[in-house]
Amino acid sequence: MASGRSAASGGPARVPRSKALPSSAPLAKDDGMSRNRLSSPERKAVILEAARKVFSNHGFDAARTQDIAKGAGVSEALMYRHFPSKEALYRAVLRQTIREQNANHAMLILTEPTARGVIQRIGTYFDIAASNNFPRIKEGFRLLLASLAGDGSFASLVYRRALRMSLSATARALNAAREAGDLDGTMIEPANTSMFIEHVGTMLNTVIALPGGLRPYQGTGEQIARDATRFCCRGLGFSDAMIDRCLELPAP
């Protein structure tokens, strides 16, 4: 499961080209937008955080550098001093998200190569996707969707890395569950299993963030995560009894 969650870099994703601000462009004087004197690395980090929010909300094409500068509390000229172009900012945001993928993956390690391990991992994934307690992960999910709406190169990189980190362990656990008689039905390719669950989580994370009146789901975040877990585990071939036993859930 990638989870925008989802990472060390396999190289920056391709982004559209546009003309960068010349390095010789004059810098604006302090216009009152920024009162705190930060070091250069600190200022760069603030700009990067502002850019992450704007890119995750609007995608690359619709993101406006004016909004990024405003969010960071700096002038555009000062922003361009740290990042020479909109593309440079976008690449920096994507590299940061990729680095975070490793830490996010650690939250989803299989506890054991069994049916219990698989089901608990899926449950944890949907708990995260349905929660509002992981804002950076939610931004990562939105960056994935923005990439998929564009050329898809960043999303493809995240998915490839996620499979490299988890596919072999997932396959071993699914095979062990089948040999133990805990998994029924036609075997689904482990890579497809991981990606199908990933995609359900990506959309769940996005839709559940909508205002209450626009959200089509019923129930609390915890209930929605449980339903998503049951939905995917049933599709894999696990029985409700096995799902409830592994998650220690009461029968519906």
Summarize the structure.
This protein is mostly helical and 252 residues long. It has 10 helices and no strands.
Description:
The protein has about 250 residues and is mainly α. The chain has a domain of about 150 residues: Tetracycline Repressor, domain 2, CATH 1.10.357. About 65% of the residues lie in helices and about 0% in strands. The N terminus is likely disordered.
Low-confidence stretches: 3-35
Oligomer: single chain
How many individual helices? 10
Q: What global shape is seen? A: elongated
Give me the secondary-structure category.
mainly alpha
Q: Supply the CATH architecture of the domain at 97-247.
A: Orthogonal Bundle
Helix content: 55-70%
Number of strands: 0
CATH C-level name of the domain at 97-247: Mainly Alpha
| Rg calc | 21 Å
Taking the sheet with the most strands, its summary is: none
Mean pLDDT: 82
Q: What is the element string, with H for helices and E for strands?
A: HHHHHHHHHH
Task: State the CATH topology of the domain at 97-247.
Answer: Tetracycline Repressor, domain 2
Strand residue percentage: under 5%
Record the SSE blueprint:
Layout: H1 40-62, H2 65-72, H3 76-82, H4 86-106, H5 115-129, H6 135-149, H7 153-179, H8 190-208, H9 221-236, H10 240-247
Helix pairs in contact: 1-2, 1-4, 1-6, 4-7, 5-8, 5-9, 5-10, 6-7, 6-8, 7-8, 8-9
